[in-house]
Design goal:
InterPro entries: Cyclin-like_dom, Cyclin-like_sf, Cyclin_N, Cyclin_PHO80-like, PHO85_cyclin_1/2/9. By secondary structure, the protein is α+β, with helices and mostly antiparallel strands. The protein folds into two domains: 3-178, Cyclin A, domain 1; 201-304, no CATH class. The chain contains 13 helices and eight strands. The strands form three sheets. Strands 3-5-6-8 form a four-stranded antiparallel beta sheet. The protein has a two-stranded antiparallel ribbon with strand order 1-2. A hairpin with a 2-residue loop joins strand 5 and strand 6. The radius of gyration is 40 Å and the shape is elongated. The relative contact order is 0.09.
């Protein structure tokens, strides 16, 4: 199965916890950051405060897992948009200095900026930055969101392009299981179709020595799963019957009528008499009719619940 088929299925699938775990893992690998469960925020001092001392307030810093999960829930972001942030995060990691180190909230800023750029680049409409600030539950203000977006674009040299080959490579761990499932489904369909074709028709050839001897008569009994047909004439003998109603007596009702005494009619009467007699062909046709009648009764019991 092709990568494009697997990618289409992946893009139409909902966001899963496994995807969020993978995003957290990728974000943590961008750069080391200080460990802290709070971040400090500097507020301007009131006009009448002594010495104009600024007010420093600390805010709890949610885990990266909680932060990303809330963003996904608040924005209802598409799977493709969310997972495309991996492209920008890997591109940023290559451009950062080796000794770069961030603040406790740097990873949160990087992921949010990557998600904003992916949303604006891949979708016709995207939330405004003031809405993104609300989605952070007060962790960042609109000014912070504007700043982190500009900083990321500058670090990426405004290169926000994404091609399918990049996505196929970065989404490999998600696309491979989908391709394996598609292959399994294809094998199952092929095996079922072959089984149906093999079981739909059966041809039974009656040996010549089982047919009453005649200078100008021959017979062939051909039968499929639903219709059996045989025609009787001066040159060939065919017995026609459907899968639901089969009876040898119908031959007598149809053929035993007042007819002219011609050579053809005499031959036909001899053939019918041979069927009524205890001949191998007569016994064979009777056994086939009884078998099909039993199969029909079993099907009626199965589907009608009798």
């Amino acid at each position: 199965m092709s990568d494009s088929q697997a990618m289409q299925i992946f893009l139409n699938s909902p966001v899963t916890q496994d995807m969020i775990h993978h995003l957290v893992s990728v974000t943590l690998q961008i750069l080391p950051c200080e460990n802290s469960k709070t971040i400090t925020e500097t507020l301007p001092s009131p006009p009448n405060s002594p010495n104009n001392t600024p007010i420093i307030r600390s805010k709890p810093l949610p885990s990266l897992m909680t932060f990303i999960t809330k963003l996904v829930r608040y924005t209802n972001v598409y799977t493709g948009t969310l997972m495309s942030t991996i492209v920008y995060m890997n591109r940023l990691k290559e451009k950062l200095p080796k000794d770069a180190k961030g603040l406790p909230c740097t990873r949160h800023r990087i992921f949010l900026a990557c998600l904003i750029i992916a949303s604006k680049n891949l979708n016709d409409s995207s939330p405004k930055n003031k809405h993104w600030a609300k989605y952070t539950d007060g962790l960042f203000k609109r000014e912070d969101v504007n700043l982190m977006e500009r900083q990321l674009l500058m670090l990426l040299d405004w290169d926000v392009s994404i091609d399918n080959n990049q996505l196929i490579y970065l989404w490999k761990r998600f696309l491979d299981p989908i391709k394996n499932d598609l292959k399994k489904q294809s094998r199952i369909r092929n095996s079922l179709s072959k089984g149906m074709i093999a079981g739909s028709t059966q041809t039974i050839v009656i040996p010549n020595n089982s047919i009453p001897s005649s200078n100008s008569s021959s017979s062939l009994h051909s039968r499929n799963s639903s219709v059996s047909s045989s025609i009787y004439s001066s040159n060939s003998l065919i017995h026609s019957r459907s899968s639901s109603v089969s009876s040898l007596e119908s031959l007598n009702e149809e053929f035993v009528k007042p007819i002219k005494n011609t050579n053809t009619n005499i031959n036909m009467n001899k053939t019918l008499n041979s069927l009524n007699a205890n001949t191998p062909l007569s016994n064979y046709l009777k056994s086939v009719a009884m078998k099909e009648e039993r199969e029909l009764n079993d099907l009626i019991k199965q589907y009608c619940g009798y």
